[in-house]
Design goal:
This protein has 279 residues and is α/β, with parallel strands linked by helices. It contains ten helices and eleven strands. The strands form three sheets. Strands 1-11-8-7-5-6 form a six-stranded parallel sheet.
Length: 279
């Protein structure tokens, strides 16, 4: 068993972004990301802080809009409008989840697709579906980088994705398909999930249930990517995969923490640089 080191690979990507940003700045274009946080969800505040730190490291200018919980939907849409029209801003990110009174779909739809560095806009998701250029959701894009930079050959392999969310499961399946894997998407209604999962050469788990996937889900020598992040009863971090029970069966596996997590922010930086280059 070997660990896939997300910290190391994300650092490589951030260093590449930093070098590209330096080139862009020399050419008179400063990459710029606007981050909007509504309310004071503690986890969201940590994520936003991490994004700011990454921007600083990568020479990306970051604008931060921290709005009160009571912000109306219209006020948020007006701010997005303003940022859409700001030529200095390359990327706009609205930290999810939003307070209950704001319609997430409306907010995502309002972001200019060419500034949608989260890759959530219907135009970008559609571009991914038909193989055109657009922004890809950061976590699945990061997983592709983890696999490629760990010398995992994806082409022709059987890949099973457990989870069908719009943020990870669906785009992940499309990206693996693009890399010529044979892809199966599983979910809570899948019959005989263990049997299906245990046929995978590459198993990607994003179901949001702590330590759900045990050894009976995993083929000998499989590559396992664990997207989940939880705290267990002892406040220890764990993923959707029962790492201790599975590790002796696999050839490669991502740890939690230090696997997929750091890649999400690295790919966000990558998308901001790309937005600036395209602009």
């Amino acid at each position: 068993m070997e660990l896939i080191d997300g910290k190391k690979i994300s650092q490589e990507i951030k260093d590449e972004c930093k070098a590209k940003a330096e080139e862009l700045i020399k050419a008179g274009k400063t990459p710029c990301l606007a981050v909007i946080l509504v309310g004071n969800d503690p986890a969201s505040s940590i994520y936003v802080g991490n994004k700011k730190k990454a921007c600083e490291y990568c020479n990306i200018k970051s604008l931060s809009y921290e709005l009160p919980e009571s912000t109306s939907e219209q006020e948020l849409l007006d701010l997005i409008d303003k940022l859409n029209n700001d030529k200095e801003v390359n990327g706009i990110l609205v930290q999810l989840p939003l307070p209950k009174h704001i319609d997430e779909n409306k907010v995502i739809a309002k972001i200019d697709p060419s500034k949608d560095v989260d890759g959530f806009h219907v135009s970008n998701v559609g571009a991914l579906c038909v193989g055109q250029e657009g922004f890809v959701s950061c976590t699945p894009a990061g997983i592709i980088q983890l696999l490629k930079r760990s010398n995992v050959d994806i082409s022709g392999k059987r890949c099973v994705v457990i989870g069908r969310s719009n943020i990870v499961g669906k785009p992940m399946a499309l990206l693996m398909l693009k890399e010529n894997a044979t892809v199966t998407i599983c979910h809570s209604k899948t019959a005989d999930l263990k049997a299906v999962a245990s046929e995978a050469d590459i198993l990607i788990v994003a179901i949001g249930k702590p330590r759900f996937v045990g050894p009976e889900y995993v083929k000998d020598g499989a590559v396992v990517i664990d997207v989940g992040i939880h705290r267990d009863e002892n406040n220890k971090m764990c993923g959707d995969v029962d790492f201790e029970k599975v590790k002796d069966k696999v050839s490669l596996i991502t740890p939690v923490p230090g696997g997929v997590g750091p890649m999400t922010i690295a790919m966000l930086m990558n998308n901001v640089i790309e937005a600036c280059e395209r602009y």
